[in-house]
Amino acid sequence: MYQQSVTSVRSRNDRLALASGRRPAACIRTFGCQMNAHDSEKISGMAREMGYELSGDELTADLVVYNTCCVRENAENRFFGNLGKMIHRKNAGEDFVAAICGCMTQQSAAAERIKTKYPLVDIVFGTFNLAAFPDLLLETLTTGRRAAEIRTEHGEGFSDGLPTVRERAFRASVNIMYGCDNFCSYCVVPYVRGRERSRPADSILREIEGLAGSGAIEITLLGQNVNSYGGAGSGGFAALLGEICRVPGIKRIRFMTSHPKDLSDGLLDRIAGEPKICRHIHLPLQSGSTKVLARMNRGYTKEDYLALAARIRERIPGVSLTTDIIVGFPGETEEDFGDTLDAARKARFNGAYTFVYSRRAGTPAADMPGQVPKDVMNARFARLLDTLNPIFLEENRKLEGRTLEVLVEERSPRGEGFLTGRTDGNAIVHFRGEAGLIGSLADVRVTGCRTFYFTGELC
Ligand code: SAH
Ligand code: SF4
Questions:
Q1: CA distance readout (Å), 158 to 9, 39, 227, 315
Q2: Model pLDDT for residues 71-96, shown as the tens digit of each residue
Q3: Alpha carbons 41 and 43: distance in angstroms, whole number
Q4: Is the CB of 298 inside a 6 Å radius of any atom of ligand 1?
Q5: Which ligand lies nearest the alpha carbon of 287?
Q6: Whole-structure pTM over 0.70, yes or no?
Q7: What's the 110 CA to ligand 2 centre distance in angstroms?
Q8: Is there an atom of ligand 1 within 6 Å of 287 CB?
Q9: Of the four, 151, 200, 204, 395, which is 20 to 30 A from 95 by CA?
Q10: Which ligand 1 atom sits nearest the alpha carbon of residue 258?
Q11: Are 349 and 306 in contact (CB under 8 A)?
Q12: Integer Cα distance of 306 and 296 in angstroms
């Protein structure tokens, strides 16, 4: 069905382009994490294959796709804010196709809300069936009726091999696994992305070889818990990394996310021994309180985490350690929060994503006693930033005067003649240079340090 639908939509769009002198445009808007961003690259790839020109303008596009996130309430709110624009265009009688996909559609309550409250949305599809998009689009275009398909079971490798549009040819994300089995008590991911399944190594390697062939030098491997690739304790991830290092043309390998309970010494040794693997580990702490960690179902204590952080720093000199922290988990006391601040000080993180706890219907934490009032959460959040920011700055200052290899990514927003690149440790560096360097590795001497970025000079 897939190829037939792609061909039919493409012929239709070719005819329209010929008649009007303008190719129909598709705008794909992404909410949420890197996993969603990568799904959007596949949705863009399918849209392009179906004869759409990609556009950033959701107010004029002939096809608008919203790829939703429901991990936290504010991502949901941003989506509903944008949905208003889509509905406004529909109410004004504009002729375009409105589609919604992503994690939100996999939650029955949200899917129901979209179905009943927003009848003007033409297409709804889930995370398990990205490849159904062309069939649904064709159905809507030919019948004028709504087409929806949300699956709750997944077929192996269902979205592997879909055409993909990547923002930059020199940098690419690759899924190595889908779903999650950890069921942290606050998190919707296992419900909306399904059970953990690892892609076969040969399929991953073929994809990376293809990417290298089209100019990729940096690869980011994506999974909710990459350390359990091939099964927790199998050593599968360290082995996979070793094989990827041997793909000609690939110069840098990143991965995220590492779950502390599954990070083995074997993996640390692999990272330490392979210069192509970036010296950066994103290791979500979530909370520094052992009691809260137990209620979160994280599978480690504060002491376990700190011992692991120390082991990482010892085995991989110069490593950058970044984290995710949630404040205001149900039942979090002032003492528990103090443990989080203490752990943050001891781990001396190089960077962090910080979140206020968001109550997610259907997760165990949503029904736990002791939901923390908003004002208390916000005050703790501000104190957490006050603790973390000076640590980032102090850690960054240690690199002043050093020469770091950066992947030059784009022109810098800092002004004419400036470029922006990323270090091995995933830090941002702004420096003067010719735009011709974009897409290559360059040595940059760090001349200035801020909390969230460096300034430097090309060597
Ligand atoms: N699989 C990754 C992260 C996936 S979600 C991991 O386990 O580390 C990204 C981050 O969002 C999480 O690490 C967590 O810090 C945050 N998050 C998830 N659910 C949340 C919730 N209900 N409220 C606030 N933050 C949440
Ligand atoms: Fe969510 Fe925990 Fe799975 Fe990460 S490991 S996706 S936080 S359930």
A1: 21, 12, 22, 38
A2: 999 888 999 889 998 999 999 999 99
A3: 6
A4: no
A5: 1
A6: yes
A7: 20
A8: no
A9: 151
A10: 8
A11: no
A12: 17
